[in-house]
Design a protein that fits this description.
This protein is mainly beta. Helix content is about 10%, strand content about 40%. Helix 1 (about 10-20) crosses helix 2 (about 40-45). The chain binds dinuclear copper ion.
Length: about 675
């Protein structure tokens, strides 16, 4: 195990051999009685089976020793990202993204939090939008491997995307993506982080007013595939270099980037190619046949969107775009005529599309189709080259012949959704209805020859109703094949009752051996995770624990408002009161200051400490201010003082023995 500080380690193996193997009385089964079996005694006293005791030993991570992997988990409509260690499945941190977080001083009066949160707000929603629905985290990559620099995640509710800097695990940018109203599964990073992709889920009206009657859905609504260029230094989105590709008004869903042999391509699933818009209450009664659900599942095939983003780059560079809401957009007819966009039929209402590590196989799983459908990159490229079309859709997009591009179909089970990969050429597909994971083999290009290619190997039961799943480094060109986590939507009876809203259940599965083994359950009690990505912790080489003295975390430079100890001061200029404050165990300097109603108070607080973990908080509860000031950090707060009073302020972080003494006063005299 990759460890942290080297602690003195018992040679556990010897103890194990004398314990579990020699066993003790009382275990349900799996242990034989014997002398010196301390572990066996413990397992027996706790009524653990041999497999359970083994799993406990395999997943226990002592203090001072570090988990081998991190998973970055979407928090669903909690609007956050959760960071868990693997194999312990301990929660290490919650990163606030679209939702304020008081502990981290995100969204309670500090400029950083407010700037980030307001930066991603549609002006129509003013500054009241304070939630999002995080779905699909995407780690930055170099040559197809996670590089531990940046993390992106979409807001399914509002068509936004956020960037988290993995140097300090803080959200640095939220972008309200032009021309998107909502975005579900379209998030991925290309193999060298050239682009982060995000597509629309519900198509948008493209009329001047933004209104169009649903009766004009086909004519006036469009989807958009968005390619956001990334600044390689700071990870932020660069709209100047970004572009969109206009798509028909189908519902674009999950997506993945081509890699290696499929590098340069992007794949997006779609459903509702029927273009159903609902209407089951029309006529004064509920007509199920008119419901969106019913009408959107009537076609036998939907369309896998195949996008050549390198070709799109050329067309964009040649000026083949229109500007729409500040974004360069390749019109649908251009995307079609210039060979940027092709369709391939896929069994109806697909969900996941996942490219295998070699880039040769594109695995599509359909909610209503029991198969894993494997498309071949080689076949797709050949069919495009030969213009091997089976006509076009209603918008003129060429449809590749299914027989030409489909390599294999493998019957997996009921409700297949998402696929992940190991290092042995196996695929793992979640089966929502079977509440299981199907392990199956890929083909020759993934090392499985005649006889054992494209075969279901086994099904692993999970508890219950699995959505996504993830394997270690499973979206990269080099999966580790070590661990898999099932993201189960229902936990039902797995945990003690905690009221009517149940936690979800992550289950850790060991996939290193021939047959996968269930290791542990972990209740997820602070959000509704959709997807996670799992990265080897040693790749997070950029993580810092202390900022350089006087750092503004938004710029990574020394803040113009930073001070060193001894430089504290209060400057008054008319109605503006500027306070340069330091925070240091266990006092603020200054710890009192005099103002009056009508003043604009500008607080610049520098944590002048350089000791890891010596974070201070700063709260003025009367004015709803709460900041976290980490070692070396500068926090800025602008406050219009509109109420007279003598208000307490205090440090919210238990920083020292005299933490309670770290307090002060702000006098706001009547004007
Ligand atoms: Cu500083 Cu408590």
């Amino acid at each position: 195990m990759a460890s942290g500080p080297q602690v003195s380690r018992r040679t556990a193996l010897g103890w194990l051999a004398g314990g579990v193997a020699a066993g003790a009385a009382g275990a349900r089964f799996g242990f034989s009685s014997g002398s010196g079996g301390e572990l066996g005694d413990v397992a027996g006293a706790r009524n653990l089976t041999g497999d359970e005791a083994r799993a406990a030993l395999e997943t226990f991570v002592p203090g001072g020793v570090y988990d081998e992997y991190f998973i970055f988990s979407s928090g669903g409509h909690s609007g956050q990202i959760m960071v868990y260690g693997v194999p312990s499945l301990r929660l290490l941190k919650v990163i606030p993204v679209f939702t304020p977080d008081a502990w981290q001083g995100y969204g309670f009066g500090t400029d950083q939090g407010n700037l980030v949160l307001d930066g991603g707000v549609d002006s129509a929603k003013s500054n009241t939008l304070r939630w999002g629905d995080t779905h699909h985290p995407a780690l930055s990559e170099t040559e197809g491997d996670y590089d531990g620099r940046f993390l992106y995640i979409n807001d399914r509710a509002n068509g936004r995307i956020a960037m988290v800097d993995l140097r300090d695990f803080k959200t640095k940018q939220i972008l309200d993506v032009p021309n998107l109203q909502t975005s579900h599964g379209g998030c991925f990073v290309t193999p060298n982080s050239e682009y982060v992709h995000i597509s629309s889920m519900t198509p948008c009206p493209v009329t001047e007013s933004g209104y169009a009657p649903l009766s004009r859905y086909k004519e006036d609504f469009r989807g958009f595939s968005t390619w956001l260029a990334i600044d390689q230094e700071d990870g932020r989105f660069d709209l100047e270099r970004s572009f969109q590709i206009e798509l028909p008004p189908y519902t674009q869903d999950l997506a993945d980037a081509g890699k290696l042999t499929s590098f340069g391509l992007g794949f997006i699933n779609s459903y509702n190619t029927e273009m159903a818009t609902g209407g089951n209450l029309h006529g004064g009664h509920a007509d199920p046949s008119k419901s969106l659900e019913s009408a959107a599942t009537s076609n036998d095939y939907d369309f896998l969107h195949i996008i050549d983003w390198q070709r799109a780059e050329e067309v964009v560079a040649e000026g083949g775009t229109r500007i729409r809401n500040g974004m360069r957009v390749v019109p649908l007819e251009t995307a079609t005529s210039e060979g940027i966009l092709h369709f391939a039929p896929e069994p109806r209402n697909p969900h996941g599309v996942d490219v295998n590590p070699t880039g040769d196989y594109i695995c599509v799983a359909g909610k209503l189709d029991p198969n894993g459908n494997v498309y071949s990159t080689e076949r797709i490229r050949a069919a495009i080259e030969a213009q091997d079309y089976d006509g076009t859709d209603g918008f003129g997009v060429p449809i590749l012949r299914l027989d030409s591009v489909l390599e294999a179909q493998v019957e997996l089970g009921a409700g297949p959704l998402h696929t992940q990969f190991d290092d042995q050429g196996y695929a793992y597909t979640s089966l929502f209805l079977d509440t299981a994971i199907a392990k199956w083999s890929l083909g020759p290009k993934a090392g499985h020859g005649e006889g054992d290619a494209f075969k279901l190997v086994e099904k692993i039961p999970v508890h219950y109703n699995i959505g996504h799943l993830v394997t270690a480094e499973g979206d990269t060109v080099h999966p580790d094949g070590r661990y898999m986590v099932a993201l189960n939507k229902w936990s039902i009876d797995r945990f003690p009752p905690v009221g009517t809203l149940h936690p979800q259940n992550f289950q850790l599965i060991d996939i290193a051996g021939d047959s996968p083994r269930m290791l542990s359950d972990a209740p997820i009690g602070n959000g509704e995770p959709h997807y996670v990505q799992m990265i080897n912790r040693e790749k997070l080489t950029h993580v810092i624990q202390v900022y350089e003295p006087g750092t503004d975390p938004m710029t990574w430079k020394r803040s113009p408002f930073a001070i060193d100890a001894g430089e504290e001061r209060v400057e008054r200029d008319g109605d503006e009161v500027v306070v340069y404050m330091s925070a240091q165990r266990s006092h603020f300097t200054p710890d009192t200051f005099e103002t009056k109603v009508g003043d604009l108070l500008r607080l610049h607080i520098t944590n002048v400490e350089q000791t890891p973990d010596a974070t201070h908080g700063f709260a003025i509860p009367a004015y709803n201010i709460e900041a976290s000031i980490d070692p070396g950090e500068v926090v800025n707060i602008d406050l219009t003082l509109d109420r007279a009073g003598t208000f307490a302020m205090y440090c919210t972080e238990f920083c020292s023995a005299l933490h309670l003494e770290m307090q002060g006063w702000i006098e706001v005299a009547p004007s």
